[in-house]
Amino acid sequence: MLRNICSTFIYVLTFIFILSQEQANGALHGTTKKMVEEANKKGPYLGLVIPNLFEMNPLLSNPEYKSTKLVIDYAGRRFRFGKIHKKPVILVMSGMGLVNAAVATQLLLSLFEIEGVIHYGIAGNANPNLHIGDVTIAEYWSHSAMWNWQRYGDGPENPLPFEGDGGFTREIGYLKFATYSSNGDDNLLNNVWYQAEEVYPVDGTPEQTQQAFWIPVDPNYFLLSKTLETMTLEGCINATTCLSTPPKVTTVQRGTSANIYLDNAAYRSFLYNNFNISPVEMESAGVALICFQQKVPFITFRALSDLAGGGSASTNEADSFSGLSAENSVIVMVEFVKLLAGYNRKLLKFI
């Protein structure tokens, strides 16, 4: 009897241990696995990757969004199911930064039947021709904090470590810190050279990488988004506080991401003058790189909430207008989904 009880106890402990290991390792099992399988029967979905609750809440309260009440929690993420203009969508909050954005996007694509990904939120503005409240739709995205930092004494003519044979490159460009010294002297920080990301295409040979710096959004999505440039956006926080220039929707050539909150006029100008970058923020390139590798169509809508250091020295515009900008990004995203819902999917060339 005692032996049987001990055997049963050991069996139960072993089962619990295996189950806990399965959960700890992020394995899909049990109820969650069944919920995912049932959800995918109703797909495919548009995946909406959203940086934080500040940018998600305007969508949750938007009358065009209808929640189906289905929520699936997995690996620390919450996947919310709903519809926008009858188009099935899945919402997931990524959290701040490139790693969080990439993880959330990969989980979304790995778990669910996704036909395309839309990313939206607020951003800083590096383009002096644009204004706070404008919603930008960039054709290309880059990660601009992948650097090769040269040792002091080396210059642009000196090769970088591991340059060639698919290693580091001087082709993209560099930033010379001494250019921004207030007294004009040399600077021990020397130069940083911008580098491309290594990507692993889903249809490529495993462990063989490709280089990618400017990641294009889906060309059909981008073409369709141009029809949104005539939209009217919100320009006032309240009856007494309005933007000096009415905001607009505009397609731009380039945006960039880095795990840096940019509030510096000199670097803002450098990015615009050297790379023709408009929106600057912390997540879009993470979404772009994952979708590029997985060959899933994507597009990003970023509303400009501040001037990335180019405004007044005494105030930060984001403190005043980030809420308005978040609302505008949702308004434009929702309108795009409505267009997509009525668009001929064969023309989108979904992969």
UniProtKB/TrEMBL annotation:
- Keyword Signal part of the UniProt annotation: yes
Mind telling me which InterPro entries this protein's record contains? Nucleoside_phosphorylase_d, Nucleoside_phosphorylase_sf
UniProt signal peptide: 1-20
- List, in alphabetical order, the Gene Ontology terms for molecular function in this entry: catalytic activity
Entry keywords, A to Z: Signal
Q: Name one Pfam family in it.
A: PNP_UDP_1
What are the residue boundaries of the Nucleoside phosphorylase domain, all occurrences included? Answer: 47-337
Q: Which GO terms describe its biological process?
A: nucleoside metabolic process
Q: Which named protein is this?
A: Nucleoside phosphorylase
Organism for this UniProt entry: Artemisia annua (Sweet wormwood)
